[in-house]
Amino acid sequence: MTQMEPPLGSLPVQDHDHDVLLIAGSRPEVARLAPVATAFNDADRIRALTVATGADPMGVHEAFEALGVPADVTLLLREPPGTHPAAIGAMLMTRIDELLVDLDPSAVMVYGGGMTAAMAAQVAFWRQIPVVHLQAGVASDDLLCPFPQEANRRIIGQLASLFLTTGGAALGSPIGPNAIPVGDTMAANPQPADLRFARLVRRVRAGDSKLVLVGLDRADSLGVLAGLPDLLERESDVEIVVYGELAAHGAAAPLAQHDRAFVARTLPLAELVGLIAAATVLVSDDPELVTDAPGLGTPAVLVDGPHIAQPGDSIRSILSPRVMTTVRQVLAVAPKVVDEPSDGKEAVRVEQAVAWMFGLTPSPVLAEPVLPEQSPAPAAEATPAVAASADDDADDTADEPSTTEA
């Protein structure tokens, strides 16, 4: 066993009565927790510490950096974990427990049902530290789909003190009494800096287009690239974004000239995460990227990659010549979902709910702004009949002692 690595990062000076650890173990978790960290910082009522860990702590660390929220703590593992969930979970459990003993936080916040979230919630419960479960309302009624996230989500649901949901009723197991709808905090991330991608995401969110995101780096994936023009010809509502090493290949030239295709050699991580979340399907020869996609709500196709059959798995490894057939099948069954418009306050609602849990505010939900026409009418604007009635009452009681102050 290698020597234990200390956590990376310099902790801010303790200047709040309450602190919350935002623990992320994957890029999808970072995409939901980074806006929350910003909201805590802006409100300045509770100290929030972002923790990057998981099977690839430095990858999570870089994701926090890409979204403009540097990780306060990067929890490195003592040795490379195995691939089986039990090996990953055992190592994460030990490291997270050590962190909780060192920092003794007021609460721990986790997102979804990943292995890091499950281990953090379990250890926090053992240490009698309250658990806040973000996006607890995103659920299925199948214990094995997605696997093992849905089972982990239900376990966390038994341990959490506060449940923050996207809204609406959750399927599967009950999520507890303290369930507060906050919306999807993913919407609070910055919009793509590239205006082409920003407009594309808006079209997809409005239900006008379906996005097929294609990331290819290996030469043996050229067959996929060659099949994309035909996909555009067959599917009139599909738009394609191609990135990676093969974007510079000559086979990508026809796509670069198509009005429903975008070709880019590289994509900033922040924009890539946003495009994956908006996509109807991701096609890639990068196993790590494909693994992240279901956490962002997107089915993924791994081109010519290793595939270990798992119940309810939303990741498929397909031989290059058959990828387009699989993509068309996904497009055929994927409904056009029109997203609810975001008000940009999802992360602010999270901060408000946690502040309520700590007794810092009387309400767990944000107060709705009072519009001018909703304000009570001033007394001077009373109708003449009411005014006359008030004058009569005043005459009748003029000789009586007053019991109220003017």
From TrEMBL:
Pfam families given in the database record: Epimerase_2
Top-rank EC class of the record's enzyme: isomerase
Compositionally biased spans, kind Acidic residues: 390-399
One Gene Ontology term of the molecular function aspect: UDP-N-acetylglucosamine 2-epimerase activity
Sequence ranges assigned to domain UDP-N-acetylglucosamine 2-epimerase in this UniProt record: 42-303
Domain of life of the source: Bacteria
Span list, region Disordered: 367-406
Biased composition (Low complexity): 376-389
E.C. no: 5.1.3.14
Keyword list, A-Z: Isomerase
PANTHER family documented for this protein: UDP-N-ACETYLGLUCOSAMINE 2-EPIMERASE
Family: Belongs to the UDP-N-acetylglucosamine 2-epimerase family.
The protein, known as: UDP-N-acetylglucosamine 2-epimerase (non-hydrolyzing)
Organism: Pseudonocardia broussonetiae
Organism classification: Bacteria, Bacillati, Actinomycetota, Actinomycetes, Pseudonocardiales
